[in-house]
Specification:
globular; mainly alpha; 153 residues
Length: 153
Amino acid sequence: MIYKIITGTLLILSIVIIVKMTTIITPVTIIDIHSKIVNDLQANYGITKKMAEAIYKVHIISEYSPDFIAKLILSESSFNPDAKSPKGYKGILQTPTKTGYLKTDILHGIEILQSKFKQHKDPIDAIAAYKGGKDKPQARRQAIALLKAIKEI
């Protein structure tokens, strides 16, 4: 019984020491990570804090990287939430509908993209399908360019 208490105490003491050492060595919090990602998005893409915050929130929900989401938005609308295509697509990610709420519009575009990834095993096919058709040369070129840009990050 005494052995178990001592072992348990040593284990707790070891965990406390490791946690304290980790805190001293890497005092990174979720807030620090959030701030860094939002600041990096603003600096790298010249976007507003509101836009960067919306991208960050969708990144957390969707698990796509913030840079992937930003590059997709850049390729679709150059970060213009009022963009309209000749084919009638609207907003930041050129979707059939637009709510006017950045996070909602980005999330809607990402959900459409996710459905394309479920339909097509090849990432180029999926992104090209999102961009207008997997068999369309321009959509395929855009998909390849987006994937290449992501690999450079």
